[in-house]
Design brief:
mainly beta; disordered N terminus; seven-stranded antiparallel beta sheet; four-stranded antiparallel beta sheet
Length: 166
C-alpha cells in the first residue's frame, strides 16, 4: 500500500544553487552506461557526459561527482528522507541504530565486514549496487557486527535486513 503523502521522486541538490526532483521512471530511462568502477557515460539530448563518482557517503546521501571534468557536491534525499526531515527525526538518528536494511532494491557487490568484527562510525560495511550506481554502505555508529544477513552476489529487496549490531 503506497503512502499518498510520499511521491517516488528523489530530491537532488547540486552545490548551493541547483535543486531538482528525479522520478524513478526518469532515472531508469536514462541512457547511462557504466564505463568503469565509479565512472559512467550519459547521453542526454544528443550531448555526451562523462561522469565519475569521486566520493560518496551513502548514509548521508552526499556525493562528489565529476561531470566532464568539473566537480560538483551533490546530495540526494529519498522520499522517506524528506519525510523524516520534515517530522524532525533526523537529528542524531543514526546513533541508536541496531540494524541496517536495504534503502532500495539492489545487488550486494561486496561485503567488507564479518560477524564479530568491531567497526567505527563511517567504516565501510558493504557495497550495494542500486539504480545503476555502486553505493558504499557505511556504519552509522561504532559497535560490533552481530550478524551479516546477506551474501555477495545476492539480490536484495527494499527494507531487507543487511546487517545487525550487538
Amino acid at each position: 500500500m503506497e503512502n499518498s503523502n510520499m511521491d517516488d521522486s528523489y530530491s537532488v541538490k547540486v552545490g548551493e544553487d541547483f535543486d531538482f526532483k528525479l522520478s524513478k521512471d526518469t532515472i531508469s530511462s536514462l541512457d547511462l552506461i557504466k564505463t568503469g568502477e565509479n565512472s559512467y557515460h550519459l547521453l542526454k539530448n544528443g550531448i555526451s557526459y562523462h561522469l565519475k563518482i569521486l566520493d560518496s557517503d551513502f548514509n548521508r546521501g552526499t556525493y562528489t561527482l565529476s561531470v566532464n571534468g568539473t566537480e560538483f557536491e551533490t546530495s540526494i534525499q529519498t522520499p522517506l528522507d524528506d519525510l523524516i526531515q520534515k517530522m524532525g527525526f533526523a537529528v542524531n538518528a543514526g546513533k541508536n541504530i541496531d540494524s541496517i536494511s536495504a534503502p532500495m532494491p539492489g545487488l550486494i557487490l561486496d561485503i567488507l565486514v564479518e560477524e564479530g568484527q568491531e567497526v567505527n562510525e563511517e567504516d565501510q560495511l558493504l557495497i550495494l549496487e542500486a539504480m545503476k550506481m555502486e553505493n558504499i554502505i557505511t556504519s552509522p555508529r561504532s559497535g560490533v557486527i552481530k550478524t551479516v544477513s546477506v551474501s555477495k552476489g545476492e539480490a536484495v529487496d527494499k527494507k531487507q535486513l543487511l546487517i545487525e549490531f550487538q
